[in-house]
Amino acid sequence: MPTLCRRSLIASAALMAFSALPSLAQASATVGQRAPDFTLQDTAGQPVRLSDYKGKTVVLEWTNPGCPFVRKHYDSGNMPATQKDAIDHAVVWLSINSTAKASGDYLQPAALAHWLHERKGVATAVLMDEEGTVGQAYGARTTPHMFIVNPEGTLVYAGAIDSIASARPADIPKATNYVKAALADLAAGRPVAQAVTQAYGCSVKYK
User: Fold this and answer.
1) What pLDDT sits at residue 144?
2) Can you tell me which residues the record assigns to a coiled coil (predicted)?
3) Whole domain around residue 96: which residue ranges?
4) Is residue 160, in this structure, part of any structural domain at all?
C-alpha cells in the first residue's frame, strides 16, 4: 500500500475514534442554566441529592487526593479555609470524587474521608462518583474543578479555584480566589463578575 494512502487511512481511523468519544463540551452543564440534579452516596454510604439544598447556595468541588494541585490547596490549608468561610455564611459545600475504582488514585470512601479530615476539610458532604456520571454531566475536567449553584438552582460559576495555575503553595497568597469572589457577589445580590474561568489541575480519572 502506498505510504500516502496508508497515512490517510490512519488519520481517518484516528478521526473516527476521536469523534466516537463522548463530548464533555456537549454534555456539560452551562453557566446561566439549571444545574443538573443528582444523587450520590457520601463516604458513609448515605444518599445526598443536590435538589435537597434548593434555596441554598451550593459549591461543588471535584477532588482527588492523588493530584498535586489538590494537595497544594489542602496541605496549605487554602481549600479548608475556603470551605469554612463558605459554610460559615450558610453555603453548602459538596466535595465530589469521580476517580474510577480501577485508577491508582482511587481511595475507598473511608480512606478518602480520613485524608480530608486529616487536612481539616469541612465540606458539608464528600460524595463518591466512581462511575463518573455526575462529573460527565457537569463537564468536570480537572481536580480541582469548581462549580457554584445559586439558591434558585442555576449554575452561576464554573472554573478554577483561583487565578494562578500552578501546584506551588507559595502562589496562593498572590492569586485571586475565584470561589470566594463569586460567593461574595452572590451574598451582595450582584451577578457573579467572573462566571467562567479556566479550570486547572490534573485530569479527572474517569472510568
Assistant:
1) 98
2) none
3) 24-203
4) yes
| Backbone phi, psi, residue 150, to 5° | -80, 175
pLDDT value at 94 more than 80: yes
Tell me the C-alpha to C-alpha distance, in Å, between residue 73 and each of 120, 147, 167, 172.
12, 16, 8, 8
CATH number, domain containing residue 194: 3.40.30.10
Distance from C-alpha of 194 to C-alpha of 179, rounded to nearest angstrom: 10
Evaluate whether residue 3 is within a structural domain: no
Task: Report the number of distinct structural domains present in the chain.
Answer: 1
| Inside any domain, residue 69 | yes
What is the end-to-end Cα distance of the chain in Å, rounded? Answer: 37
Residue 171 has pLDDT above 80, yes or no: yes
Q: Taking each helix axis as running N to C, give the angle between helix 78-88 and helix 178-187, from 0 to 180 degrees, rounded to the nearest 10.
A: 10
**Measured between alpha carbons, how far is residue 100 from residues 27, 29, 106, 132, 206 in Å?**
19, 21, 6, 7, 5
In a domain, 83, yes or no: yes
% of the chain with per-residue pLDDT over 70:
87
3-state secondary structure the chain: CCHHHHHHHHHHHHHHHHHHCCCHHHHCCCCCCECCCCEEEECCCCEEEHHHHCCCCEEEEECCCCCHHHHHHHHCCHHHHHHHHHHHCCCEEEEEECCCCCCCCCCCHHHHHHHHHHCCCCCCEEEECCCCHHHHHHCCCEECEEEEECCCCEEEEEECCECCCCCCHHHHHHCCEHHHHHHHHHHCCCCCCCCECCCCCEECCCC
